[in-house]
Design brief:
With 482 residues, the chain is an alpha/beta fold. The protein has 3 domains: 186 residues, NAD(P)-binding Rossmann-like Domain (Rossmann fold), CATH 3.40.50; 250 residues, N-(1-d-carboxylethyl)-l-norvaline Dehydrogenase, domain 2 (Orthogonal Bundle), CATH 1.10.1040.10; 33 residues, Single alpha-helices involved in coiled-coils or other helix-helix interfaces. It is 56% helix and 7% strand. The protein contains 20 helices and 9 strands. Strands 3-2-1-4-5-6-7 form a 7-stranded mixed beta sheet, with helices on both faces. Strand 5, helix 6 and strand 6 form a beta-alpha-beta unit. Helix 9 runs antiparallel to helix 15, helix 10 packs antiparallel against helix 11 and helix 15 crosses helix 19. The longest helix is centred in the last third of the chain and has 34 residues.
């Protein structure tokens, strides 16, 4: 089918229910998902050939229509129009908005489905509102497969904007117990903030899993086949999750070039797009501790110093990495330590969402957040059902560790977490995610912390004042004069 025939088909089929800009991996699969659910979709990509190939070959037989300019795309849409932008976060999103906004009318809707920083979403909503155009910032999780077969989606903005596209979003979302993994989260940038924290939790969980891998590979000496068996078994119990599932599968994958296991051919430098760092920044702005996320970002940064690490490995020596204990017992303890740390990581993320909701006026329903994370998204896990239940039972829950069930789950495993952290330190293997998860647990349950000494130091060198335990007020001492 050539361009002329595509244009003829478009002319006969004006009135698409939604438009999409950006036919990258996520964009293309979302279009196919929408079309397979019976929706008519108009598409545009900056590279015309990519648009043509997609309509002619990849979406053949579907109600997908090509716009080779943004003007054509807008002309293919029902009014009021709804357009989903799926381009790289940052300047490209602004560029599309500035180009398409003059073509839209009051009441039309722009949806940003990328990983935009929440502050950009706030700015863009104000920008398009000047023309009467609605704006949704919508986080989407699930990767290529999720986009095609059912992602988790986190929209925020005007409620009327969400209601406009709710039938489409609910149809294409992942389903758990018959319910769609999408819901309206709140005004302005609520959706993109929730997606940012989702990604921060994802960073933390991936770091924790990587540490268990290291402890079993370098510490205990497990082979790839044995690692597959361990993670596969873990995925049958309380650790059941998407990340544990794919971790199990990774150890079986063969490299096409060498026929060795692919995992051993992959360079140990972890890349990142910044959302974990944004979570740490956002948490620090609100003074909410998220140490497991922070440690995960730090370790990705450290992995990038490959050349320095290779030199340091020859110069700086630690203990010999030789595990002498009972292997099966250690792996069982490691499973418990990982589960406890996963709960603690989710607790940090949900505590941040609660504080952000208060600070930014999102009005987040944390039960709903946990509910839509149960399917489609990267951090989906059996644990989220317990988290959802905890938030449902006590909507004002300040921290998941204050839930009787979840706190009991951690307390029952804290001995194993402590022993694993001790073994990691004695073996000289880095396990900062596990270590700071334990530190967060111990810090959170401490009625007293040594912060009084810090306040004394601050007052000593900078006259920053302090408060007393025995009376109200702000005090300052001339230190060293008594």
């Amino acid at each position: 089918m050539g361009k002329k025939r595509i244009e003829e088909r478009n002319n006969l089929n004006r009135g698409s229910e939604i438009g999409l800009v950006g036919l990258g991996v996520m964009g293309k699969n979302l279009v196919l998902n929408m079309a397979s659910h019976g929706f008519s979709v108009a598409v545009y990509n900056r590279t015309a050939e990519k648009t043509r190939e997609f309509v002619e070959y990849e979406s053949i037989g579907q109600k997908v229509f090509a716009g080779y300019t943004l003007e054509e795309l807008v002309g293919l849409l029902n009014e009021p129009r709804a357009i989903l932008i799926m381009v790289k976060a940052g300047a490209p999103v602004d560029a599309v908005i500035e180009e398409i906004l003059p073509l839209l009318e009051a009441g039309d809707l722009i949806i940003d489905g990328g990983n935009s920083h929440f502050s950009d979403t706030d700015r863009r909503e104000k920008r398009v509102k000047e023309k009467g155009v609605l704006y949704l910032g919508m986080g989407i999780s699930g990767g290529e497969y999720g986009a095609r077969h059912g992602p988790s989606m986190m929209p925020g903005g005007p409620k009327e904007a969400y209601e406009r596209v709710r039938p489409i979003l609910e149809a294409i979302a992942a389903k758990v117990d018959g319910g769609p993994c999408v819901t309206f989260l709140g005004p302005t940038s609520a959706g993109h903030y929730v997606k940012m924290v989702h990604n921060g939790i994802e960073y933390g969980l991936m770091e924790l899993i990587a540490e268990t891998y290291d402890l079993m590979k370098r510490g205990v000496g497990l082979t790839n086949d044995e690692l597959h068996v361990v993670y596969n078994k873990w995925n049958q119990g309380e650790l059941k999750s998407y990340l544990i599932e794919i971790t199990s599968e990774i150890f079986l994958q063969r490299d096409d070039k060498t026929q060795d296991r692919l995992i051993d051919m992959i360079l140990d430098e972890a890349k990142q797009k910044g959302t974990g760092k944004w979570t740490s920044w956002g948490a620090m702005d609100l003074q909410v501790p998220t140490p497991t996320v922070d440690a995960a970002v730090m370790m990705r940064d450290l992995s990038g110093y490959k050349v320095e690490r290779k030199i340091a490995a020859q110069m700086i020596h630690g203990p010999k990495t030789i595990f002498k204990g009972n292997r099966d017992r250690f792996i069982s303890q490691l499973r418990n330590a990982l589960y406890a740390s996963m709960i603690i990581t989710y607790a940090q993320g949900m505590a941040l969402l609660k504080q952000a909701s208060n600070a930014y006026g999102y009005g987040l329903n944390l039960e709903a957040v946990a509910r839509i994370w149960r399917g489609g998204c990267i951090i989906r896990a059996a644990l989220l059902e317990d988290i959802r239940t905890a938030c449902q039972k006590k909507p004002g829950l300040v921290n998941l560790l204050m839930d009787p069930h979840l706190s009991e789950e951690v307390m029952a495993r804290q001995g194993d977490l402590r022993e694993i952290v001790s073994v990691a330190a004695n073996l000289g293997l880095p396990a900062p995610g596990l270590m700071v998860s334990l530190a967060y647990f111990d810090g959170y349950r401490s009625a007293w912390l040594p912060a009084n000494l810090m306040q004394a130091q601050r007052d000593y060198f900078g006259a920053h004042t302090y408060e007393r335990v025995d009376e109200k007020g702000i005090f300052h001492t001339q230190w060293g004069q008594s």
